[in-house]
Specification:
This protein is an alpha/beta fold. The chain folds into three domains: 99 residues, Helix Hairpins; 125 residues, 3-Layer(aba) Sandwich (Rossmann fold), CATH 3.40.50; 99 residues, 2-Layer Sandwich (Alpha-Beta Plaits). The chain has 14 helices and eleven strands. A hairpin with a 2-residue loop joins strand 9 and strand 10. The longest helix has 31 residues. This is K+ transport system, NAD-binding component. It is found in: Cell membrane. Pfam families: Ion_trans_2, TrkA_C, TrkA_N.
């Protein structure tokens, strides 16, 4: 079934159920009313007896036939039984079919999701629950952000298995569907969302998601994954505020780590700022010329433009240690500075 037809079919399920229930109630009421009026006006029953007789007739309970019932009354009663059974069985079979096909359960799940989404604001929508999307979701949950995830292939159960902190699952709502569809984005609360992250592997789909999202909420902040940098301008035209070429960034970080790898280095990250390369690394103080010295004595800023931004003692990290801190053999120093300055620092203090 084409996407458009599938969306239309699913959107009419709830309306069909409501119409069926309404028609069933109206039909039963009319049958009950007609039967009651007939027995009351034409068969001479009291109003209470007429209502009671119609009730036991439609329900097929039956406490026996009224002695004064006319021949036409017997025929009318037979038609009443058939009409009552037809209405009840027809509507019961419809509801049963919905249950067997799973449409009713699907509708109930959708309603539950819509109720959850309606209660949140300033949330972040993450489109795509693949490798990148899952990492984004886990990091957002770590920061206690409210997340609505959208995916057409992954199930809610599969996504929850990928959440690293099970205590944070209450902060995530899952919407199954195609995020290029306006209805799906509306179910995800796009109009009240603060930001949208789209991590689909296809640039065309990411661009289409961005266009649809901006059309529904012009102020939403959009971050998107790019597979091909030649499509960068298209992402910008689509309204993406922060396009990220994840493959290129990962490749750059790997090469930088290999390029600057030294025997005694533990590189955390390499940063490029204003055409200058900076590096964050961890150095083991043991068996170096740093042991026993105060941070102030090293004059790292003046000589190398390098800073000790933290000390690792056992499993504890001390950020911004005092200049009077003495460096111990059982500690590790977290350094930040220009790569050239760190290289000179290593030559003087680390190389034997």
């Amino acid at each position: 079934m084409p996407k458009k037809e599938s969306k239309k079919a699913f959107g009419t399920v709830e309306k069909n159920i409501q119409n069926r229930v309404k028609n069933a109630l109206v039909s039963i009421f009319l049958i009950f009313l007609i039967g009651t009026l007939y027995y009351w006006l034409f068969e001479g029953y009291s109003l209470i007896d007429a209502m009671f007789f119609v009730g036991i007739t439609i329900s097929t309970v039956g406490y026996g036939m009224h002695e004064e019932l006319s021949n036409f009354g017997k025929f009318f009663t037979l038609m009443l039984i058939l009409a009552g059974l037809s209405v009840v069985l027809y509507n019961l079979s419809y509801v049963t079919a919905l249950l067997v096909e799973g449409e009713l359960i699907k509708l109930m799940k959708q309603r539950r999701v819509e109720r959850k989404v309606s209660k949140i604001k300033d949330h972040i929508i993450v489109v795509g629950a693949g490798n990148i999307g899952t990492q984004v979701i886990n990091q957002l949950l770590r920061l206690n952000e409210q997340v609505v995830a959208i995916d057409n292939l992954v199930t809610e159960e599969e996504l929850r298995e990928k959440i690293t902190d099970s205590s944070k699952t209450k902060n995530i709502v899952f919407v199954k569907g195609d995020a290029t569809n306006e209805e799906v984005l509306l179910r995800a609360g796009i109009k009240n969302a603060r930001a949208l992250v789209t991590t689909l592997p296809n640039d065309v789909l990411n661009i289409f998601v961005a266009l649809t999202a901006k059309n529904l909420n012009a102020n939403i902040y959009i971050v998107s994954n790019i597979s091909n940098l030649s499509n960068l301008t298209k992402f910008i035209y689509a309204g993406v505020d922060h396009p990220i070429a994840t493959a290129e960034i990962a490749g750059l970080k790997i090469v930088e780590a290999l390029t600057f790898l030294k025997k005694r280095e533990n590189i955390i990250d390499v940063l490029n700022i204003s055409d200058k390369a900076f590096q964050v690394e961890i150095i083991d103080i043991k068996n170096t010329k740093l042991a026993g010295k105060k941070i102030e004595e090293l004059r790292l800023k003046e000589k190398y433009n390098v800073y000790i931004i933290g000390l690792l003692k056992d499993k504890n990290l001390v950020l911004g240690p005092s200049k009077n801190e003495v460096l111990r053999d059982d500690s590790k120093a977290v350094l930040f500075g220009e790569i050239n300055g760190l290289s000179k620092f290593r030559e003087e203090f680390l190389n034997s």
